Amino acid sequence: MSGVKPSKIFMGADHGGFEMKEQLKAHLIAQGYDVADFGTHSKEAVDFPDVAFLVTQAVTGNHNAGGRAVGILVDSIGQGSAVVANKVMGIRAVVAMDAFSVKSSREHTDANVLCLGGAWLGPGLARDLVDLWLETPYGGGRHQRRLDKITQIEKQTMKDV
Questions:
Q1: Cis-peptide into 40, omega within 30 deg
Q2: Cα–Cα distance, 156 to 158 (Å, whole number)
Q3: What is the mean predicted confidence (pLDDT) over 138-157?
Q4: Rounded to the nearest 5 degrees, what angle is found at the Cα of 110, between the Cα atoms of 99 and 115?
Q5: Cα diameter, the chain
Q6: Scanning 20, 76, 146, 159, which has its CA 20 to 30 A from the CA of 127?
Q7: Which domains, from first to last, does the chain contain?
Q8: 134 and 27 in contact (C-beta within 8 Å)?
Q9: Is the predicted pLDDT of residue 158 greater than 90, yes or no?
Q10: DSSP 3-state assignment of 134?
Q11: What is the mean pLDDT of the chain?
């Protein structure tokens, strides 16, 4: 993303995050973002790993095609989706906890997937955290060396598989 408005936002949620996803999707569309919704589309139980994998595959596919897409995942607490997302090469997923952690995740690690907890974040706070995350540019500079190390670790891990 690196300080440029994302070309696309891929969203997904399990049943625990469905309502929040719907609220955030409407908010983002109203702001002019191009949003693709990977489900779920109801409160019926689904497994968060399936949705998280679809969203992260879309983010990496868009990036590999030269795009600037990001992902937003909502499950009950955000942690499960972050674990799944970070298994995908090229994804740097973070859980939204507060304004400081959200801003730092963009400035320091150029996070490309934001995970939210629908069971514990109120809709106003979730909206504010998403807006802050999308508005915060990657800091570059001294942080790039660390991102390069993350990429090297990913590549080494893939060789070992």
A1: yes
A2: 5
A3: 87
A4: 55
A5: 45
A6: 146
A7: 9-160 (3.40.1400.10)
A8: no
A9: no
A10: helix
A11: 92
